[in-house]
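Hallway conversation turned thread

IA: we were arguing at lunch whether anyone had actually written out Methylenetetrahydrofolate--tRNA-(uracil-5-)-methyltransferase TrmFO end to end. Turns out nobody had. So, for the record, here is the sequence (445 residues) and right after it the structure tokens. Reply here if something looks off.
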Amino acid sequence: MEPVHIIGAGLAGSEAAWQIARAGVPVILHEMRPAKGTFAHKTGDCAEMVCSNSFRSDDDVMNAVGQLHWEMRAAGGLIMATADRHRLPAGGALAVDREAFSAAVTQALQAEPLITVVPGEVTDLPSDGNWIVATGPLTSDRLAQSIRGVTGTESLAFFDAIAPIVHAETIDMTVAWEQSRYDKGETEAERRAYINCPMTRDQYNAFIDALLAAEKTEFHEGETAGYFDGCLPIEVMAERGRETLRHGPMKPVGLTNAHKPDEKAYAVVQLRRDNALGTLYNIVGFQTKMKYGAQTQVFRMIPGLENASFARLGGIHRNSFLNSPTLLDDRMRLRQRPNLRFAGQVTGVEGYVESAAMGLLAGRMAAAQALGRDLPPPAPTTAMGALINHITGGAEAKTFQPMNVNFGLFPPLDEARGGRKGRKDRYPAYTQRAKDDFSAWLAAQ
């Protein structure tokens, strides 16, 4: 049997390889790291998480991301199984120890007899064979040039920003306190998963002034500042209005200052645990393009972080993706070359979970093809189906931008049309329908 080749061992490529091998089809997984790295990656491990350690909400009743988690678990996904084994307390979210997570994914793939990991960069799109391109937002320049040559169009791009990470021992816990928003979580550890730093009105306004005045990273010639709204740098949010951050990542709601329970903070900065040891915390929602020197000065204005030591400062990088509605069919194949499937962030989905989910689908579809079958996508009423429907035709091609999974991508419920059903009833109805339809899709294979 001819193997399926995968370019890129990120979350999408790793999940695709696992699904193909589970189907009994051999896989050759090509990965250029560590021989050829990127500025954002630090290791040569598979499924390295760069921007954050969170897979976001794990609520599969009221949240579309949680429903996507459910579907990936139901499909025997490697990424979700590994995340579950290396999860950290994070309230209602699924957060992991990044290094342990990627090391475990790497070990699982290397231990699978049907998967062969081949080091080295693939620079040209192959014209024959069964291939999946899962090179992510940091596709190498030479391969990106080959993609442009085949598709006849320039890849679109936006900028993805990285939040800073603080050494936990340098946070002043006489000022900050541990609490998840609204005390979410089933265990005490989950209810105390975040560290909160309160600000008064004066402190907040001084912080905004410093943020707006700070020296920023310049864009390279030919780059454009088209940000994805789900990952905006904090200074860009601040430029949209002084109160924007206070109603976004710095909102004070659902939190009570353990040191001063009678005082309501004007704004709150949250930090989320970043590793199993609890020695590192990332500043939630604080992606930035400030220069490093400016970052340390501005972030140390946050109460509780005056003496903070940073394990990593924020950064920003170009994120390339296809105009998938014009280029891919609903089997994720490139229309110009049907032997090529694309998966992950390069298709225009945004987020770790969404990327891995597209890898799962591409892997199953490629395996079916290798076995002489055709596998249609799941119904658009499912989280995976809603995503693939969006990127392969549901989105407007002229204005196509990366998208997280959300209930706005799901077909409306008949009884919810006209707003007759509230959110508390509508969301569980969406997720129950998705579970039923995804289970039926799996059963038909």
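OS: looked through it. Confidence is low (pLDDT under 50) at residues 221-225.
IA: good, adding that to the notes. Residues 325 and 392 are 4 Å apart (CA to CA).
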